[in-house]
Amino acid sequence: MTHHTSHNVAGNVFDNTSKMAAIIIGATAIIAGSILGSVNPFLRGAVSSQGALIDTLFSVLVGIATAIFVIVQGFLLFSIVRFSHDPEDDTDSIPLRGNTRLEVLWTAIPAIIVVAISVYSYQILAAIDRPQPDQLTVEVTGRQFAWEFYYPDYDIKTSELHIPLGRQALLKLTSADVNHAFWVPQMRMKKDAVGGKITTVNITGTELGTYPIVCAELCGAGHAVMRSQVVVQSASDFQTWVQAQVGAKSRAAAAPADPKALGKQLYTQLGCNACHKLADAGSVGLVGPALDGIGSRAANTVPGQSAEEYIRTSIVKPSAFITPNYQPVMPGDYGQRMSEAEVDALVQYLLEQK
What we know:
Layout: H1 2-13, H2 16-39, H3 49-82, H4 100-129, E1 136-143, E2 146-151, E3 156-158, E4 161-164, E5 169-175, E6 180-184, E7 189-193, E8 199-203, E9 209-215, E10 227-233, H5 235-254, H6 259-269, E11 277-278, E12 283-284, H7 294-297, H8 307-316, H9 334-337, H10 340-351
Parallel strand pairs: 1-5, 4-10
Antiparallel strand pairs: 1-2, 2-3, 5-8, 6-7, 6-9, 9-10, 11-12
Helix pairs in contact: 2-3, 3-4, 6-10, 8-10
């Protein structure tokens, strides 16, 4: 009698009603997964070819995850409704034997899905890392709290990243101090910048525009303002920008008698604008004290020191004088990064901020 009842219950699991429910749940899962995967409301509008590949991979994963969610929840709800018992029924459930075919099926299908996702993900990663023959190399250095970009092909250094539209740029990332993370959200590109190590990433802009660069690794008190930008330009505009940078560098080298122009250039190039507010340079940093009027008040800051001595010491030995209510976060290597003439130019530029 027990064997007969058990057989009937087991048969109920695979009756026509259950089969129809399985078909409906499966069809719903396919439709829901296809819709959500194609719409992808989470990641949209990548502005780099690498980002587009990442968005596509993410869309596939969202579609698969949605289908699996619908299947699991659908069968769970169906089982609750179809095989529920009277709440007053305290008798033991009827023992059932396992179904080998079903167990093989629900083990094989996830295994196939995982392998397929792994292969596809590897293909996406390989495509992202595949170099193009006309790569533009840019050396990126993270510093507390600014990004520095050096173009070895043109021997120019800037505080923002410019790349030509459709041309792959190879970024070689490192850090001059603590660990940073170079992140361009709209390009779906994030890579650690680690001191003493070079990490690389390819990036190819697909839409003209300016896109923010942020540091995604907590790197100190000024982490929140460690910002720059990627400027994606047409090939002709990029070459015009390069020539302007080369020309500015040549003029600065040929005409050191104009310390104000050189000092202003250094103020931005060295990333001072990331931490300090200075109207003349258009900077609004809040990590360090505002420099508007520094030329007027510097002489009265430290007894016995002239304004020039105070500003120079604050640049090359920033820990010597800490402004109240500010943290000692300014890098101490500016004296090594700049020549004596460049330090003089920066000092003279700040002295003129009355």
